[in-house]
Amino acid sequence: MSHAILDQTSPEKLKELFDGMDIHPLTAQLLVQRGIDNKKDAERFITPSYDTDIGNPLDIHGMSDAVTRIINAMKHDETIAIYSDYDCDGIPGGVLLRTFFNDIGYEKVLMYVPHRHNEGYGLHNHAIDSLKEQGVTLIITVDLAITNIDEVKYAKEKGVDIIVTDHHLPVTEEVESVKSKVKNGKNTKKYIQVVPDAVAVINSKQDVCSYHDDMLCGCAVAWKLSCALLSKLKEEINEKKKIKTKGDSWKKVLGTVATLKEGYEKWLLDLVGISTVADMVPLVKENRALAYFGLKVLRQTKRHGLNHIFRNQGVSKEHLTEDDIAFTIAPRINAAGRMGDPIQAHAMLYERDNVKAQGYVEDLEALNMERKQGVKDITEGIDFDHSAYSNEVVVVGDLAWGPGILGLIAQKIIDETGKPTFVWGGGRAESKDVEQRETRAESEDTERSEVRNKIVGSCRSRGDVHVVELMTRCMELFPGVITHAGGHEQAGGFSCAIDKIEELSDALNESIKHVEIKELEGGVTTVHAELTMNDVHLVTFNAVNVLAPFGVGNPKPLFAFKDIEPLSVRWFGKKGEHLEVIYPKGDSSKSDEVKAIIFFASKELEEKSKKKHTLLAHIEKSVFRGKTELRLRIKEIV
Fold first, then answer.
1. What's the pLDDT tens digit per position in 94-151?
2. Which pTM value belongs to this model?
3. Which of 146, 211, 265, 509 has the fewest CB atoms within 10 Å, i.e. the most exposed one?
4. Residue closest to 579 by CA, chosen among 561, 601, 562
5. Residue 267 parent element (H or E)
6. What is residue 483's three-state secondary structure?
7. How far, in Å, CA of 405 to CA of 378, rounded?
């Protein structure tokens, strides 16, 4: 694979652009590459401001209506249910809202997390029935339900109000009046968004919403709701209104809120930081601030479950980074939904008892190991010469594949083929009993029988094809093949009737002819600057790290080290799967060398590393079990 070094701005121009700023020339160069070319924007990017970069939650469409309904529910002692998704966005978001209600002293709150295998994604009628039987009159969703039009309607008919908090794309429908218009020989169709008829829909991806950032993750949306509620509760206290209530719950809430320390809501940002990084939303605008402050809080978190994970995995809280979220925290949270019961991950994050939290962490660790092995077993058996992989849209599956690992398999396939990939499965897993499972619907058995008649799947795209748009067109052109769809531009989930599974591949490969396919720059790795091994030191690392946290929209800088030869090459790790390459600096003395590593390396890479080559790598500081090491993380060897 080829690489290209981004244009480099001259030192004189950099000095002119950032005059008066005490920043390293490399930092200035990286800022310009990110479209930041003045002192004001640079200072704001490097040091986000809580007050200016985080918007007013009431500016989000539907927020005021949601706050009013929740306040009214607490005044009248209603039972509220939090209904969250089962991934590393929904789980922290559900924990956040549950923590918030607990901390303000409102006790009539139930928690519901649908089982990924036995129930599937989204809001379900049987869950609504079960929650209603337990006295619930208001359900607040987290990271789901924007596409659950029928289920919200069902809840309304049953007398249960729904507040939707979500960040996924709403459903669209074609406007009949423009069907006949023709442009450039093709039908020009107009689509409008359709959202659930809920008490409130809080989702900045709605066309009616003008909030300054429409890319918040689901947990962040839940946090915005808690901030808006807290603000309103403080107003109620300040106004000292005398309100008649059915019980003492409202008085308790006001009394508890009055004792909360100023800035209480900021201590919930550890959960927002986890989800913002794990859900791979762009780390720009408000998301950058949320990730930035989220990491600061996470380094001080008192959540027992997280602290057990950090200790078990040798993670230094003081030096915790976005990589620790992506590669240590998120996989263990997701493992519960993929391989077991998502309530286990919820319990791990929420549990106040240290011993119980440790038990949940051990359960998640076992599930994560099972998840790794399951993906490995399947992907190692893939035959890319099979005709399925020659189609424009790759559609593969097996009834024995568990739904929890389908997205991971799809990503492996797309990494190999580069094509939009849909992976389906039918494996089912039974739930494990966890203390917090008490609100799981007893009527689940009915739903399970319905789920068993469906195939569930995950899909991925490189970004050239919008998978939600593709699935929407498929549902229009081939009714009944895909029965439910949702997600983002590059990742989504779907359901398919089991008797239609043979039609899925043909339907999708026909439907892709009716969606836009974007041109992507392929095969070229972007390099931010050329360095030498003499540049690998703490000053350079700090010049780069000042722009962290890195992620989508703010990529970790990649550097090229040209025409180098190693001092040594060796495999390491329990199974000898990782590669370490040692390079000399200016001279060849062993005391002055640079270590570069790559996890799960190929034999081909090892052979390349032994010859003179160009190394593409990130510079990183590893702190593992108290030992600090400055090193390079290998991306490619060319």
1. 999 999 999 999 999 999 999 988 888 899 999 999 999 999 999 999 999 999 999 9
2. 0.88
3. 509
4. 601
5. none
6. strand
7. 10
